[in-house]
């Protein structure tokens, strides 16, 4: 199963609910909690978070990441961008790279020719 399919399955197996208990002395209260389900046969069985992560062979941070998406109200998990370079904002355009290559080919190229004990430098010019 690919990464997006696995995320969609985990997303569908989690359910967000309001917390039942709030402590009075805390400064910040939880706004949401999750229930985790595993399908056995034709029925869904509620399990703890540790069992959920071990049965699906994912880390707790993956479950937390998908839980954040579920809590924000997303209808489906965001597609994964692992292995893609979508964050390369400073990447040069291909036209710019080809222009620089054309300019660099106009300059003389230096090649090294080695003999037994002497190094001779031969300068070759590119003819247009």
Q: Which keywords apply here?
A:
128 residues, 2 domains, 3-stranded antiparallel β-sheet, two-stranded antiparallel ribbon, 5 strands, 34% helix, elongated
Write the layout of secondary structure elements.
Elements: H1 3-13, E1 14-17, E2 33-40, E3 43-47, H2 49-56, H3 60-71, H4 94-105, E4 109-114, E5 119-124
Antiparallel strand pairs: 1-2, 2-3, 4-5
Shape: elongated
- On the 0 to 100 scale, the average pLDDT is 81
Number of domains: 2
Strand order of the largest sheet: 1-2-3
The helix tally amounts to: 4
Percent helix, as a range, is 25-40%
Got a strand count? 5
How far is the first residue's CA from the last residue's CA?
54 Å
Which secondary-structure class do the elements indicate? alpha+beta
| SSE string | HEEEHHHEE
Q: Please give the radius of gyration in angstroms.
A: 29 Å
Biggest β-sheet strands, sense, barrel: 3 strands, antiparallel
User: What ranges have pLDDT less than 50 throughout 5 or more consecutive residues?
Assistant: none
Strand content: 15-25%
